[in-house]
Amino acid sequence: KVLLKYFTPLPTCTVGEIFELKAELNSDKKEKKKEAVKKVIASMTVGKDVSALFPDVVNCMQTDNLELKKLVYLYLMNYAKSQPDMAIMAVNTFVKDCEDANPLIRALAVRTMGCIRVDKITEYLCEPLRKCLKDEDPYVRKTAAVCVAKLHDINAQLVEDQGFLDTLKDLISDSNPMVVANAVAALSEIAESHPNSNLLDLNPQSINKLLTALNECTEWGQIFILDCLANYTPRDDRESQSICERVTPRLSHANSAVVLSAVKVLMKFMEMLPKDLDYYSTLLKKLAPPLVTLLSAEPELQYVALRNINLIVQKRPEILKHEMKVFFVKYNDPIYVKLEKLDIMIRLASQANIAQVLAELKEYATEVDVDFVRKAVRAIGRCAIKVEQSAERCVSTLLDLIQTKVNYVVQEAIVVIKDIFRKYPNKYESVIATLCENLDSLDEPEARAAMIWIVGEYAERIDNADELLESFLEGFHDESTQVQLQLLTAIVKLFLKKPTETQELVQQVLSLATQDSDNPDLRDRGYIYWRLLSTDPVAAKEVVLAEKPLISEETDLIEPTLLEELICHIGTLASVYHKPPSAFVEGSRGVMHKRLPAQSTESPDVGTAAGGSAPEAAPSIIPSQGDLLGDLLNLDMAPPTTSGPPPPTTGMQMGGMDLLGGGLDSLVGISHSVDPYAATPGQPVNPFWVKWSLQTRRSDGVLSLQVWLPAMKAKGLEISGTFARRAGVIQMELILTNKAMSVMTDFAIQFNRNSFGLAPAGPLQVLTPLGPNQTIEVSLPLSTVGPVMKMDPLNNLQVAVKNNIDVFYFSCQYPISMLFVEDGKMERQVFLATWKDIPNDNESQFQIKDCHLNSDAASSKLQGSNIFTIAKRTVEGQDMLYMSIKLSNGIWVLAELRVQAGNPNYTISLKCRAPEVSQCVFQCYEAVLKN
Amino acid sequence: MIGGLFIYNHKGEVLISRVYRDDIGRNAVDAFRVNVIHARQQVRSPVTNIARTSFFHVKRSNIWLAAVTKQNVNAAMVFEFLYKMCDVMASYFGKISEENIKNNFVLIYELLDEILDFGYPQNSETGSLKTFITQQGIKGQHQTKEEQSQITSQVTGQIGWRREGIKYRRNELFLDVLESVNLLMSPQGQVLSAHVSGRVVMKSYLSGMPECKFGMNDKIIIDKAGKGGVTNEAGKSDLGGGGSTSGKQSIAIDDCTFNQCVRLSKFDSERSISFIPPDGEYELMRYRTTKDIILPFRVIPLVREVGRTKLEVKVVIKSNFKPSLLAQKIEVRIPTPLNTSGVQVICMKGKAKYKASENAIVWKIKRMAGMKESQISAEIELLPTNDKKKWARPPISMNFEVPFAPSGLKVRYLKVFESKLNYSDHDVIKWVRYIGRSGIYETRC
């Protein structure tokens, strides 16, 4: 009760307080000192700045009192970064503590040192860390193992130079299971930032060691090991089965995370087992009970489990097909559990259990929570579409619900009935009369649009269809676009069906849509109808009343490639969000796309050819696939995907992630299906795309400023910019100018898929609102791990920028030299072999004219753009320079540059496995050499 | 991995803030407060993503615990860890309350330093933590070298949950079979879903490092034994005889999970449960059954709407177990509409009361023997309303406690072997108790 006083609410530490604490900290009395440090920590916790006390607190460090020591360490970890010079004062104590006789003190010192992120300190850390990694006490070793990961986070190069990675690898064979587990965790984390380093070096021997440690270590250690195992690809089905056999006992662990991680390993390795194997079906049976058991855990874990089960039932519906009942909603479940259960119920619904499911859904539709009720009503509709035999019962259930007159229930029911009509045409139209009774109560656009669609579609059977539609027309301009479009179409349909009585109505709607509306979509549609009707009514009939394709059964399945990737992430946040890690993780960590292994074929020679390591992880100096396009697009990685429409009511707040949501989705959709640029290069088909030619270039390969988006096309926002590569980071430099009269805020940027996976590495940093006539310069770092799609021209980049006014699209071209990476210098031998290896068809020759540099000057100039000269040869007065370039996606370009003294024209030959890039590379050469 | 851990009070003030990773800044503390604790809506998800930072939270009474990360962490692990953190704190200072947390903040920081390293959970067994994280502070100096290495080997060791050298004068163990029986029944008396989730909780006061073997009437084992002609174990059941003997011989267990002390590979291959137990109280296993469940009570509801302003409710409960056994703490909760203006109740047994604040009639009966029946009838007066929406009729729920295991589970044996010390299985005093409680026991009306 004494300590309560530390938490007295004070906004900031006053000068007096600081002074008082200073005095107490320097007191001779140990107890007083300790009390003072406690007060300091308490202030720190509530966010007060007590960094001024740094020297005084550090002075307390040299003490025999372990509790006091820990408190001082806690303070150090918080403030060392802001006071790096003073933090050095602490080093000696750390080094001394690392030699202490007490293993707890040694471990404490090495653990804390790793948390002090000051460059100068890390140098002093190396020696103690090296000793601790080989300490006789396992407690110190397990702490040191994690410390390597900490140090790597601060200074990766140092860790490699000091050889800590090898020591860490050795710890995988340690006799103590906890040391093994921590070493695995540390290595896995380090490996994530070096995707191709093969750091973990998983092979049957090391896997065996991990599986042995799995039986002995703590629950947390088991999770680290299982998560690491999931990254391994077994060589054949036999190895896969034997690992599965040793992992299955984990399914009975009390810790849900151990269970889910085991499920992940099994789901992944199962892919490799032949389906006719007895063991395969045994394994399937073993998976169901533990998954069901997860549902008796605490609600938060239930939620995680349910999100994962949602993926599992999509991938392997057979596992849980008999377990429908456990997903029935309990009255007291938290809402997030209820919504997820409902989702899974629909996925499991089949002819066998549909009666039960329907009875449940009807029950849910009378609950209190509005979101839940809506989802339940929607679910009834989805059952009707999924299980044909149940359609009739579903429709009558929906009619019952409409009778309740609960507003949102009625609206939701009408939306789903529209879908049922589309799935089963000419079957349930008898209910239209009931629907029409509720016309007045509909106030949500989706429901209104659905109802209007129904009236238009069945106009011939509804006597007063014209009256009904006319009633909507009165407030035409207050309706949302969705409703307006639907109303326009419905009235045209009505006119085509009953031309005599409705001429006036159709004219009215056409003029409303074309003359009085600002909405281009609505105007366009209006004009199309107008012309159709006036030129060829028969054709109009064929177009407007054409037979519609049936809607598919499962509407919200996750796209298969994304599903595969998410299965590889079972138990993790990605599986909770149903998004790939790249969608919510910044930087390079965890953005490697994972995919399931393929079923092994008869000959298991793929693995052995790669030296016994997993094919995925084999280090490849030169891309060796035959498929050139595949190389170019990096297709050996799982193709990146855009996730399906996010479920609207999952209750997740993915703040700021889907900024441009629908806008860019439709954009991707366009390029996906039509790809206008592939058909007619340089001729934008979509008028919203603006293209600008790039001509002016500067010496450093940076394009000088281009206007990418003129103000007149973007409601007053002008964007110009350029690209640069600085210290290995690609930067997009943007200049935003507000030429409108109003303030612009909420800027955000997104890229369409592009040839090299360029994507913003962070949000667009426009922190202050942009006032009229203001200009702001923004530098946006780019990563190259975004989704990939081949563009034409190759270096074309389509960009969407959003602000509080609208979303704008433009496209620009970046110099390919942005993508030349710093480690693009090839070994001579490799160069020779590769040059020979690439077929001559892939060679292209270019002339660079009017260049007055000698070969050495050219070479050093090119080096500045990461074009590396490997060798130089002089033959008959002609200098031959051999050069290599590595692109950010791992493609190598080899070049031979011939320079003849006195001749201003150079000849350059480029060889690359993806010859498409040659033209762009040549342009870079020209740009660099000529400036 | 976990980037930081924050503890807040109900107002959203930070009580504890420990950051493990550089990518988590002080603003994360405020982001969670603003977006979750102070959010107007009720919590729609235990995982929240705010500006590319993910927050996992659990609530204990009015205290919020939040783990923060920017990476693709193992979400299940984070929640398991948060629960574990609560357990550890509770075992150090009791209830998790604002006052307790403030009074123990130094201890909590010390614990957080020990059980999370760079965001990776480390040993979190209270048994071993208590050997070296004490509030004595100066302990490190008084330990001998042997003591120190004993601590470290236990923390990192294969049997991290038990220390060596435990001695009891009297070797004794208590087994509690605690079951919660869950039911969802339709108004017509059809079982929509029913399951038992059970726990075997053990209190062990045993010397040394005893090797234990636990047996129950698991169908798979009994069938196996029956086939192989091995009957010796079944005969020696010195613990059985808890409740009725008329029950079935064996039960089908859908699934079970074990404390980390149990050798899972052995269970997987032989289905035998063997382990070296932690000292004191712990949960040995959890299990779930769905077949042949004894439903201790049946609820028969009858709701009649008399006009627009009156409801007549009649509920009959029937006990369905041996007449010699007594159920306790029986409570039936009958929901009433929001526009209830008055209620009149008549019940045959126990006490019934209308609780306006809870919108329910609560009927309590202290004890009830098996194979009995009791009834309550109520007249509910309603205020006329314009509300078009019909009353949702929440289900009638029930609470009770019975002295048997509704799943039919029986403990057959628990054998203790300690080869180094001179006590044998026969010297250990063993107790077993069965308690069946209602979980979510609902009947729709």
TrEMBL record, chain A:
Record GO terms (molecular function): clathrin binding
Lineage of origin: Eukaryota, Metazoa, Chordata, Craniata, Vertebrata
One Gene Ontology CC term in the entry: clathrin adaptor complex
Subcellular location: Endomembrane system
Similarity comment: Belongs to the adaptor complexes large subunit family.
Domain Clathrin adaptor alpha/beta/gamma-adaptin appendage Ig-like subdomain span(s) in chain numbering: 701-811
Family annotation (SUPFAM superfamilies): ARM repeat, Clathrin adaptor appendage domain, Subdomain of clathrin and coatomer appendage domain
Domain Beta-adaptin appendage C-terminal subdomain: 820-930
Top-level taxon of the source organism: Eukaryota
Record keywords, A-Z: Acetylation, Membrane, Protein transport, Transport
Gene designation per UniProt: AP1B1
Biased composition, class Low complexity, residue ranges: 611-621
Organism, scientific name: Oncorhynchus tshawytscha (Chinook salmon)
Name of the molecule in the record: AP complex subunit beta
Span list, region Disordered: 597-621
Principal place of residence: membrane
GO biological process: intracellular protein transport; vesicle-mediated transport
Membrane topology value: Peripheral membrane protein
Pfam families for this protein: Adaptin_N, Alpha_adaptinC2, B2-adapt-app_C
TrEMBL record, chain B:
Annotated compartments: Cell membrane; Membrane, Coated pit
Main location: membrane
Domain annotation MHD: ranges: 170-444
GO cellular component, one term: plasma membrane
Gene3D superfamilies in the cross-refs: 3.30.450.60, Mu homology domain, subdomain B
Any GO BP: endocytosis
Superkingdom in the source lineage: Eukaryota
MF terms in GO: lipid binding
Membrane topology: Peripheral membrane protein
The keyword rRNA-binding is annotated on this UniProt entry: no
Keywords, ordered alphabetically: Cell membrane, Coated pit, Endocytosis, Lipid-binding, Membrane, Protein transport, Transport
InterPro entries for the chain: Adaptor_comp_med_subunit, AP2_Mu_C_sf, AP2_Mu_N, AP_mu_sigma_su, Clathrin_mu, Clathrin_mu_CS, Longin-like_dom_sf, MHD
Pfam families linked to this entry: Adap_comp_sub, Clat_adaptor_s
Family statement drawn from the similarity comment of this UniProt entry: Belongs to the adaptor complexes medium subunit family.
Protein name, per record: MHD domain-containing protein
Lineage, top ranks: Eukaryota, Metazoa, Chordata, Craniata, Vertebrata
